[in-house]
Amino acid sequence: MDQLFTDALYMTTRSIEACGVLVIVIGAIVAATNFFRHLRDENPYRELRSTLGRAILLGLELLVAADIINTVAIEPTLDRLAVLAGIVLIRTFLSLSLEVKITGKWPWDRSKSQ
Question: Per residue in 75-102, pLDDT tens?
Fold first, then answer.
């Protein structure tokens, strides 16, 4: 029974990882399509970066979720926990910097949104 549970969690994490990668790939395709479709607009590059950045953010969130499930539920060792902490730290930094690039403000700065 324990092996069945581990196998199910393994397949779950792989499925979430695949969804994360798929979101990024589809987001890149959609962003490129919109870029070429609106090439004559005022600032198509900004829209490209915004769309692609949002896809990357969503994909990163899915990948972090898969890493957390994999580390905590499947192989909870101190080494894997340290690796997870590093991965989450790097991905959090990437997410934060992408959010600032997309919106032009810090996520906690709501005064500029109005």
Answer: 778 888 888 888 888 878 887 887 787 7
Structural domain spans, the chain:
10-107
Q: Please say whether the beta carbons of 44 and 35 come within 8 A.
A: yes
Residue 36 · residue 71 · CB < 8 Å: no
CA dihedral 23, 29, 32, 33 (to 10 degrees): -120
H-type helices in the chain, by residue range?
Answer: 2-37, 44-69, 78-103
Contacts of 20 (CB under 8 A, 6+ apart): 58, 59, 60, 61, 62, 63, 66
Report the sign of the C-alpha dihedral through residues 25, 67, 62, 64, in that order: negative
The pTM assigned to this predicted structure is: 0.75
